[in-house]
Design a protein that fits this description.
Elements (H helix, E strand, L loop, with lengths): L1 H43 L5 E8 L10 E6 L5 E5 L5 E6 L2 E8 L6 E8 L4 E3 L2 E2 L10 E7 L13 E6 L6 E5 L5 E9 L1 E9 L3 E9 L3 E3 L15 E9 L9 E6 L5 E5 L5 E7 L2 E9 L2 E2 L3 E5 L4 E3 L2 E5 L8 E12 L2 E4 L4 E6 L6 E5 L5 E9 L1 E9 L3 E11 L4 E3 L2 E3 L11 E10 L10 E6 L6 E5 L5 E9 L1 E9 L5 E11 L4 E3 L2 E3 L12 E9 L10 E6 L15 E5 L5 E6 L5 E8 L6 E8 L3 E4 L2 E3 L23
Length: 643
């Protein structure tokens, strides 16, 4: 019986195996069909050609992780989705067409967009903001994130992060970052309002207020400092402040090597910080300016491997109080094949034309920079630059130098001669007075800025009668002429656009200033500016076309109607652009940046709702060139068999 039982068991096993094989075969056949169907579906869908990417935050800037980003095509026959990471970053591939788009996370209001048009081979940055469905509930949450350099991306070790509850029960706690720059308050932060401070001694300090919820609150701190430590490469960084200690946002900082070729500039960020990285060792001059405020000149020596902190203070006028003198400085550059190159060894002279005689000359350094550093007595001067065998004298006439004032005067010259010669120049002059009363406004700054052709920019001050003059030193062309005055009894810029300067003619441009604000329009004293760089190399890009158009939202709704406001400009050799808005409505604007060989940049969410400077720094991504493939079959030369 034992053998029979064994046989029966084996027969039973065989039957079970047979049944299993049949079922498995059916499943495999079905699965193969599914795979085949998926392959067909995959083959039928258009290839990914475009990308939508961005960051998702809450209204206070906290990064939102695990937000579900979903795209459907119009017929909903195609879908792609992804989730944001701990930085709130997402990137999703699509193709040319129209899509419905959503972003959702539990506890937050869902965002939905419909009929979004995406072009082929387009990269769209769409930063999103999700709001909570209600106020913070009871309970504890986690606050964590990374403290990293916004320049190098490296984590900052041993930075201190402190949270201080600003209302309700007292709570204060600090932690330090680990070797990757990560910190965490692990489920011990009760929901509510807090002040958060992050610092590292003698390096940086930032502070801001946040509302934390009983969930994971990702708060990343990205100070603009350089913490790299190469053996030879150096860095200089720091902060620019006013004399009252407030941050100088948007100041231009110059670093020029006096014994080498380095010549660079940077613009301070929202914390007043600046940074120059990967610079060679050597001797440098360092300075900063913003509008009518200038810092002192610093002479610094950088040794191999140095990473220097140099903080600067802006003084109104032209630097720290002095004994009644001013500073005249700038660059001398020569046009070579359509671009301007520094001219070392050029002679620059100042000659006082009114009052006590004063005459002095200096030579430009290797960067083409010259300076009369606090040694030019107040008065009216002719300033001339020349270099024998390179270019004939160029002269700016009637340049006013005030006490403790720094006058920037750049010479962008060509070999054929320049300002001050009889051929090709005109005069721009006029009065700046108060509207209604006719009262003169002395000490106002009047500037001419050439908008078509070779760059030209100069400024003078009005005299006691409100009169100003650019005396036969403005080359022919089309200019914007604007006037403004800083400080008490001052006024924001008033601009007259499209002034045509004709050779050997005098062009009168008078300003009648309504001290309540500029005329004709909803926007007054608004500037949009920034720097454009290559996304890969981080080098500045010149000749980038910048277009600012009225209208738009996150995905470009209602851009550029027939009566829409628009303004265009191009970046200079440092990648900088400036757009001055006059007589334009407040609201949403779209900014576009385009350059041959790069993917066009579009920002549809620029909101202009107050006077001031709006900084929009841009990186352009080079076009990806699809590689060429050679397809074929390799066979054995003797047998003909495929290898």
């Amino acid at each position: 019986m034992g053998c029979r039982k064994k046989v029966l068991i084996e027969k039973s096993i065989e039957k079970k195996l047979l049944s299993t094989l049949i079922i498995t075969g059916m499943l495999l056949a079905s699965f193969t069909g599914i795979i085949h169907f998926m392959d067909v579906a995959q083959a039928q869908q258009p290839p990914i050609t475009s990308y939508v990417k961005g960051f998702v935050t809450d209204p206070q800037g906290l990064s939102l992780q695990e937000v579900n980003i979903t795209f459907f095509n119009e017929s909903e026959s195609w879908m792609n989705s992804t989730f944001t990471d701990e930085y709130g970053y997402y990137e999703i591939g699509v193709f040319g067409g129209y899509f419905n788009f959503s972003a959702e996370k539990q506890g937050y209001n869902t965002i939905n967009y419909t009929n979004v048009k995406i072009n082929t081979s387009e990269i769209i940055w769409a930063n999103l903001t999700l709001t909570h469905t209600g106020p913070p509930g009871p309970g504890n949450g986690t606050v964590c994130g990374y403290v990293r350099s916004n320049i190098t991306g490296e984590g900052i070790v041993n930075a201190t992060v402190c949270v201080n509850r600003t209302e309700g029960e007292v709570f204060f706690s600090c932690v330090t970052t680990n070797e990757t720059g990560f910190y965490i308050f692990d489920n011990n932060i009760s929901s509510g309002n807090y002040s958060v401070s992050v610092f590292k001694e003698n390096i940086f300090y930032v502070e801001a207020n946040y509302t934390f919820y009983p969930e994971i609150n990702w708060l990343h701190i990205l100070p603009d400092i350089n913490i790299s430590s190469g053996d030879e490469n150096c860095s200089v960084y720091g902060f620019v402040n006013y004399t009252n200690g407030s941050m100088a946002v948007g100041a231009i900082v110059w670093l020029n090597q006096t014994d080498g070729p380095f010549n660079g500039s940077d613009i301070t960020n929202s914390s007043g910080g600046y940074c120059f990285e990967n610079i060679p060792p050597g001797n440098y001059t360092l300075e900063a300016s913003l509008d009518n405020f200038h810092s002192q000149f610093k002479n610094i020596s950088i040794l191999p491997g140095d990473h220097r902190i140099e903080n600067l203070t802006l003084f109104e006028g032209g630097g720290p109080p002095g004994p009644g003198n001013g500073t005249v400085c700038g660059y001398v550059r020569l046009e070579v094949n359509g671009s301007y190159q520094p001219v070392p060894g050029a002679t620059v002279c100042v000659n006082r034309t009114v009052g006590e005689p004063f005459f002095a000359c200096v030579l430009t350094n290797d960067s083409g920079f010259y300076v009369f550093d606090g040694n030019v007595s107040a008065g009216i001067y002719d300033v001339t630059a020349f270099k024998d065998g390179v270019f004939s004298p160029w002269t700016f006439n009637n340049i006013s130098v005030g006490v403790n004032e720094t006058v920037w005067l750049d010479f962008n010259v060509s070999s054929g001669g320049g300002p001050g010669n009889e051929s090709g120049n005109g005069t721009v002059c006029g009065y700046v007075k108060v509207s209604g009363t006719g009262e003169p406004i002395p000490g106002a700054t009047v500037c001419v800025n050439r908008t078509v052709g070779e760059p030209f920019f100069a400024s003078v001050l009005t005299d006691e009668s409100g009169f100003y003059i650019f005396d036969n030193n403005v080359s022919t062309g089309i200019y914007d002429v604007f006037a403004y005055k800083e400080g008490e009894n001052g006024f924001p810029p008033w601009t007259v656009n499209g002034v045509e300067v004709v050779a050997n003619e005098t062009n009168w441009v008078n300003f009648s200033i309504d001290m309540g604000g500029p005329p004709g329009g909803n926007i007054s004293n608004v500037t949009v500016r920034g720097v454009v760089k290559d996304h890969v190399t981080r080098n500045p890009l010149s000749n980038v076309t910048i277009l600012l158009v009225e209208g738009g939202d996150l995905f470009g709704g209602d851009i550029g109607g027939p009566d829409s406001f628009a303004i265009e400009n191009t970046t200079n050799s440092a990648g900088e652009y400036i757009l001055s808005l006059v007589d334009a409505p407040y609201g949403f604007y779209t900014i576009l940046a385009s350059l041959d060989g790069y993917v066009t940049y579009m920002n549809w969410s620029l909101t202009i709702d107050n006077p001031g400077v709006y900084w929009v720094n841009i990186t352009l991504t080079p076009f990806f060139t699809q590689p060429t493939y050679i397809v074929g079959v390799v066979t054995d030369n003797e047998t003909g068999e495929t290898i």
